[in-house]
Amino acid sequence: MNPVITFSTAKNGSKTCSLNGISLHSNYNPEREAQQFVHSVDMDFTPSFILITEPALSYCVMPLKERFPEAKICAVRYCNDFKSEDIMFDRVFYLNTPNYGQKLESELFSYMGDEGICSCRFLSWLPAAKIFSEHDKTAWNSIKNTVKTAHSSLATHSYFAQRWFRNAHIFCNSVKKTAFVKRGNMPVIITASGTSLEKSLEPLKNCRHSYFLIALSSSLLPLLEAGIKPDMVLSTDGGYWAKRHLEELKNHNEIPIALSAEAAYPGGLAETNTVIPLGFADGFETVMAKLCGFKLMNAERNGTVSGTALEFALSITDGDIFFCGLDLAAGKGLQHCRPNALELISEVSDNRIKSKEGRFTRARLNSEALKIYRQWFSAENPRFKGRVYRLSETEQAVITRLGKYENTLGTIKDVDFSFFNTRIAESIKKSDFCRISIENTELPSSSVRAERIKNFIEANSSSEDWLHSIFPAEYLSWKRSIKEREKKFEILKKAHQIAEEKNILATDDASLVENISGRIKFIHGDYDNIKITVQEDLKYLK
Q: Which domains does the chain have, with CATH numbers?
């Protein structure tokens, strides 16, 4: 239940308000109060976004737009009483629903992206912060988590960017056979590699022909060992170790693999297996793949390949979607269903010094990423409700039991195989039932693609967009510094022009900037740190 805001008129005739006798704005001149607030904001970079928490009647918006004309102005609301002011903002987020903290994190990241968050100035309207203390605490915890996630995402992107482009170059040159997935309405199962997958294998095998199966690369080995062949495998990871999960596909060239251009895969795989090309909305990798004639299916980045797989599944079916093995929790022992390709590699080097138990412990401690993934799946999303499920514990025979999940995933409901079988039966009975199919496509010849890649690199390698794509973190830092230098230069230029027009004499640039009501910052010096300008300075030095 939202608190009731009392509205009244300030001394200057403007609207003001309070809650329980505590004012949210000045009772004399709320506009001037807002201008002073904006003027006091310390800023050492040019922001792309300004986010202010509960600005109430939003008197600060216009001064913010005047001072930061290039920035998008956003707000986080704690109650519904100020909805009429929302039109003034580029975007408004509300913290008035259950689990709103997690929802805010997801919405901020979705709207701004990692670079936008790293270029955002976060502000707090202090009267509202005091009045809505619990909401404010939640909001700033969410902002803190979002910034942390953005820094991690940008660091990852920067670390892998050059590798991803190299992978894309190989992809565009080496792929021989391509296909796309034709939409239907049959149920889709996505298998992840959590330990609970093991207990799902038998019931999945019993009704294998009733659903379309997307296997995340790390779940491929357990499926094949159980005699379950997926309809396709999906992988978007550009790291070296990710491709080890795909080695087994060399023995199963009949299984198509969905790959983004920057994904890593074993040598020769793209020449033997059919590839379903995926394209993200950003990056030179996608642009280059399109120029080479690849018919790309849309994919979305959201931190985890499970999330990408879910978005992909939503794009190819109107039916139900089920997850298996999506534990998103650090277990006490093995972190993945066996057999696991990376686990098999690690076991070879286990010894008394570097033990298996030590690996398990390190995996449990590294659980921050799992928390981020849980938040994404748990965020309130109307597209998931009633369509996306996670196969969980059942009271049926032991052979069909799943391990109980340690967490919940918001609107993604945990269901058992009894529910699953019922839904499948209902789906198949429908008169408009349509299976999902994989259709082959054609590619230009290798020589044509090689020429297009060469022309693409020559045309773009010296551009600003190229630097942005290949060196994202460095580009962002450089861009921020450039903008700030340009801003400072324009202020100095204006100050000198006015001084010349008005015949104002001054001893330094700072005084000229002060003359035009500019903001300067004093830094404490030291008497021992002096500039030798005149003869008297030498005497002082001695």
A: 6-154 (3.40.228), 175-460 (no CATH), 471-541 (no CATH)
Phi-psi map region of 20: left, alpha, beta (phi>0 left; psi -120 to 50 alpha): left
The Cα 185–Cα 43 span in angstroms is 52
The amino acid present at 489, given as its one-letter code, is F
| 8-state DSSP, 412 | B
Q: Are the CB atoms for 504 and 513 separated by under 8 Å?
A: no
Divide the 542 residues of the chain into consecutive groups of 10 and give the mean pLDDT of each group.
Answer: 80 93 93 93 85 95 93 94 93 80 83 88 94 92 90 76 83 93 95 88 90 94 94 88 86 93 88 92 83 91 85 94 88 55 45 41 51 75 89 49 67 90 90 90 92 87 71 63 63 79 79 72 69 72 63
| Helix, strand, coil percentages for the chain (3-state, nearest 5) | 50, 15, 35
Closest CA to 100 of 117, 80, 115: 80
Q: What's the pTM?
A: 0.65
- Give me the count of residues in the chain: 542
What string of DSSP letters covers 260-314?
ETT----TTHHHHS-EEEEE-SSSHHHHHHHHTT--PEE---SSSHHHHHHHHHH
* Cα→Cα distances 268→250, 306, 340, Å: 8, 25, 22
* Nearest-angstrom CA–CA distance, 290 and 287: 5
